[in-house]
Amino acid sequence: MTAVFTRRPGLRGIRAGGSPLHLVCLGLVALIVTAALLAPWLVPHDPNAVDLGGALAGPSPDHPLGVDAAGRDTLSRLLLGARTSLLGPLGVVVFSTLAGVAVGTAAAWRGGWLDSVLSRSTELVFAFPGLLLAILIIAVYGEGLLAPVVALAVAYLPYVSRLTRSLVLAERARPYVSAYQVQGHSGLQICLRHVLPNIAPVVLAQATVNFGYALMDLAGLSFLGLGVPALTPDWGRMVFDGQTAIQHGYPLSAVLPCVLIVAFNVVGERWADRVARRTP
Amino acid sequence: MTMTMTTSPRYRAARAGGLRRLAATAAALASLAACAGPPRNASGIDFELSARTPRAAGGLDSFTWALYAEPPTLDYTVAFDYPQNMVLSNVCESLMRWTPNLTTEPGLARRASHPNPTTWVYDLREGVRFHNGGTMTADDVVHSLDRQRDPDNAAAWAQVFQNVTDVRKTGALQVTVKLKKPDSQFPQYMASAAGVVASKAGLQAAGKDYGTSGGLACTGPYSLGAWHKGQSLELDRFDGYWGRRAKSAKVVFRFLPDASARTNALLSGEADGSYLIPTESYARLRGSDVGTLYFGEGLSTVNVGITNMRGALGDLRVRRALSLALDRSGFVQVGLGGAGTPTGAPTTRAAWAAASERTRKRAFEGLRPGAPDIARAKALVKEAGATGKTLTVATSSIGQDVSLLATAVQDAGTRIGLDIRLRSIAPNAFTALFTDPGARKGIDMFPLTYYNSITDPLDLLTNFKTGAYLNFAGHSDKKYDALVDRATALDDPRRRLATAAEAQQRAARQLPWIPVAEWPTAVFLNRRITGAPTTISYMYYPWAADVGAAR
């Protein structure tokens, strides 16, 4: 089976295979997820405590990753920021995957007019770039994580539904489905108990790829000062705040969140490759 | 979101590349850690104000100037912000002129006389030519000033003319202005964009398009050249100029909104110079051998503007507590790149240039801020019963002076028991905080930088009067109003400033704004050019005419 994933053109190069880069990224991701879970007990400082006198100071025993341009501890912000930065994409992926699978399966199984309606309406969503949709919704509903998550989930839904539809169409033509039908199983039963488990690995792989993209999109939104409220630590916001640090010539506080975001992408792409059986 | 379907056959090549990338990443991280931060308390720079830059040695064909925003229009009646005035000051001239030393001298008027307290008579220069042809007469002056007074024009300078009852031609080259009551500020504003003279014929020919397309029909050393919207604007030397000929035949303004792009343009030579340098770039520009960074008198103060006194900030003790807890030195060090002076006074010292030593001392007595006193501030908040009260500060990514001040206020407030929230405002919406009460809804304070348009502290102190345009929170103190009115009516600068000193002391006690720091202007000139003034005079003085070759 060869699944066709949707990917962004700029990221084709990040195909890490079994290289040390992938292992390092996997390690980083595991570390960050654990740290994000334990963050409230791990953070050494209040992430919003300002020390202007010590701004941009380098790593020290008190601040292992240094401090940013406002004198806030980078490690504390990175750890607490992981929670918002990972929770958002998780929401996007869960919603877009559940809804996308439902829409895609219904369209493929029923076919006919339902297929036409569902497929055309999800394709309509392609006309609206996800980020623009999110910016629009934030402009209407104001700050907060929920609005951009819902907007991005809607924008990501067609990618999942289209993939699901093609997979279900292929499954449906296989003899075991006809066998179940002959035995009198209902369409819903066959889909839930047999078709979905068979296509799950591929859909989940797409979800992983989407997670990486959603992470970047949400970070991009908070980089633009949208979405996440000002005092909530967040990776996108850290990169934004880090711009001045870069101008000062001390880019550490801005580069670290970027490294983590890229790590998530590398891991997602790698899993997608494995499922698509493109790697050894 | 853009996604394309790909099935890349290049994964093996990518695998080998992965190792190389990993090594590169590791090396990059190692080097990052090595240059992660400066030693403690060293992020700022030493700064010294320069009165001027070295005089130009010769002429130039052209020089390029970086500007952080494109002026929406160059109509002088609505020129109230940096980008418009920085361009306009070279094209349009006023009746009086603000010099690089921030004093006032005759401009298009060769003499201003004051026969009685409510009359100003301007005798105009002879033979001053407009860019569009024709010679300046009293009719042009009357028409230009009337545009500022016309309510239909919604001029930004209308407030300057609120005391004016009549602008009349009293001779071929004489204009007489009648005032309702004595007003020491009006004649000074005639050196700003409020006093600009443009050709009546030119204004009438341009109609509604004046300022956005075609020429400006003014008298300055440069005329408006090609304007490539969104990219650049050119000024061409005006050969019929009445004064000293401009040194460069052409000036090209390039619009570079991104701070780092602007700094890089200066470092790469894409732009020869710029005013309003991003504070985070001071050290980089100073460290480069591409040119020189100068600081000059800015007549500017950074403040925390109070926009709502109906909440906790209505209690003077809470405002005082915030002022006590604010880390002004830390803010100057980081937010202003070290180039600034912490202050407890709303006006700059330089605005008091005309005052006697005694007056100046009285104006600033006891206003030097000490180190943050958290314990006292906390006690004040408790005394006011404001512990735990929520206050919202607006912040924006316009520049470090704004974002870091908001952060500093949030930190100070949190330390003294207040619940301070930050609200992000988009950069282009930030100006609306000054002009639109709707935009200030739900906001209690915002970082507010104020620059004087004249060398007089009353320019700022008037804003705290009851009902003044920038008195956002509706602060009202009858005694203060009376003091400012009394000072404004005094023509003699020494007596005027003596009264203004009392007003400043009162304002500093009542804190309608919380003063934070004095902020000098910065100008960067690369090694090719020199001669630009260092002071904020660039807003109304034809500064580009002084810029020429360095060698």
TrEMBL record, chain A:
This is ABC transporter permease. It is found in: Cell membrane. PROSITE patterns: ABC_TM1 (PS50928). InterPro entries: BP-dependent_transpt_permease (IPR050366), MetI-like (IPR000515), MetI-like_sf (IPR035906), OppC_N (IPR025966). It comes from Streptomyces luteolus. Signal peptide: none annotated. The lineage of its organism: Bacteria, Bacillati, Actinomycetota, Actinomycetes, Kitasatosporales. It holds the Pfam family BPD_transp_1. The keyword Ribonucleoprotein does not apply. Its main location: membrane. Keywords: Cell membrane, Membrane, Transmembrane, Transmembrane helix, Transport. It comes from the Bacteria. Belongs to the binding-protein-dependent transport system permease family. The keyword Membrane applies. Residues 82-268 form the ABC transmembrane type-1 domain. It is a multi-pass membrane protein. The chain crosses the membrane at residues 21-43, 86-109, 121-139, 145-164, 211-230, 250-268.
TrEMBL record, chain B:
It comes from the Bacteria. This is ABC transporter substrate-binding protein. Pfam families: SBP_bac_5. Keywords: Signal. Residues 1-36 form the signal peptide. SUPFAM superfamilies: Periplasmic binding protein-like II (SSF53850). PANTHER family: PERIPLASMIC BINDING COMPONENT OF ABC TRANSPORTER (PTHR30290). Residues 105-467 form the Solute-binding protein family domain.
